[in-house]
Amino acid sequence: MAPGIAERFRSGQFVAVAVGGEHSGMLLRRPFAIHDVKPDYGGTVEFLFAVRGAGTAWLAERRSRDLLDVVGPLGRPFPLPRDPVNCVLVGGGSGCAPLFPLAHSLRRRGCRVDFVLGAASADRVCSAITARRVAETATFTTDDGSFGVRGRVTDPLGQVIEEARSDVVYACGPMAMLRAATAVADQHGIPTQVSVEETMACGTGICMTCVIPIVGEDGITRMVRSCVDGPVFRGEQVRFDDVGTIPFDALGAPGWKAQGDGDRAADREAG
Predict the structure, then answer these.
(1) pTM, 2 dp
(2) For the chain, what are the domain ranges?
(3) Domain topology for 86-195
(4) Measured between alpha carbons, how far is 155 from 16 in angstroms, rounded to an integer?
(5) First CA to last CA across the chain, in angstroms?
(6) What are the DSSP E strand ranges found in the chain?
(7) Which residues, in sequence order, are CB contacts of 57 under 8 Å at separation 6+?
(8) Would you state the CATH architecture of domain 3-74?
(9) How does pLDDT run across 210-242, given as a tens digit for each residue?
């Protein structure tokens, strides 16, 4: 139980969990999106994860009443619409975890919710029964066709947007999926809110390992930290093709010049 986290949590935030035990050499925490909280039951916090290394393997071996060192809630949550609108929620694999508390928050505001969830196979589809119960419609895709429609999660997205007359897309999953979801939403003229899955070593903005290029309202690209400036961003502001690099035109990048600096330099040379 973590009553402090459960009380302060908002949809889209995450926790950073220490793994390996007190004498472990695994010093870095692992970030996990919060799937559900239950403040009324002593403050329980649920998160989903897949075993991908020594840290998550250790975590999978924990049992009821084992103690975990958890920090949270961290990050900026999903922005919620002021008025009731139609929302389609798109998630891939275990990355769909933060979409479920978001769905409940949207429904409480009178919004229509439609789910489009994808996974590699049927056994990896996330909370299908809950999705069907919470949403107006729930569409599922799997890579191998073992559940729902065969293909990528973004394949049926355009049709769902049209049939539901969606006003906004909320997406969470791998970067390639977020890029594709943003592109589909842009084709239909609606905005996207994406929760990025970047490697976070500290979760508190100190280590700078989770920076991604974001275009600001002023048109200038800045390298921002996913853990504190995100993990939720406007999809159209994320430079997906440049994730993992520092674009040459990003603020502070080598050779970067503010708009007009080149003209002023040319004037000085001419003078």
Answers:
(1) 0.88
(2) 3-74, 86-195, 200-254
(3) Rossmann fold (3.40.50)
(4) 32
(5) 70
(6) 14-17, 30-38, 44-47, 70-74, 86-92, 112-119, 137-142, 149-150, 168-172, 192-195, 211-215, 221-225, 232-234
(7) 51
(8) Beta Barrel (2.40)
(9) 999 999 999 999 999 999 999 999 999 999 999
